[in-house]
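Go through this:
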Amino acid sequence: MRVRELEQSHEIYTCRSYLILGEWNQLGDVNTLVDPGTDGAVLAQIEKLSTGCGKVPVSQILLTHNHFDHGGGIGQIKKMYGCRVYAWCDGKDVDELLYDGQFLKAGDDQLQVLHTPGHSSDSICLYNLKQKLLFSGDTQLRVRSSDGVFTPEYVESLRRLAHLDIEIVYSGHDEPVTGGVQEMLYNTLAQVRRSKIF
């Protein structure tokens, strides 16, 4: 599995988008776009990438949640490539609903769907065990103080993620985290547990 981080548009508020490819761009690989962003600007970048001879550059789109800055550009990409769209809850252009614990082929490997409500009720993370990486969407993984207010569902989401072996986090808006992920998660969980929870 190769992860290509696509550049964000500087003209409109959007998220970070990631294109997942197989190591060798083989025909059986499933080119997967995580969170296409607001305006379809990633299309121009995808067209310049080597995504496999005779392959559709994007076979499927995975949404970490249905907020506009993550999925507003789906229509343009779907029109261009005819790809299927997967999300936790129904919405415009969504073809199939995801469920907790589901495994999906992405590139030449698998991603596990983890329902992580907190930022929104339909938030998910996508986890790859082999490379120990997580696409976290807008699930907040770094909390530095105990003066916030959080839901019990978010606490459970954090607890669940803290028990995974994660070395790399690809976030919906922040720079990738490539070290100290477990410590960050444990510290965040401790801060959140000291905060108001209801």
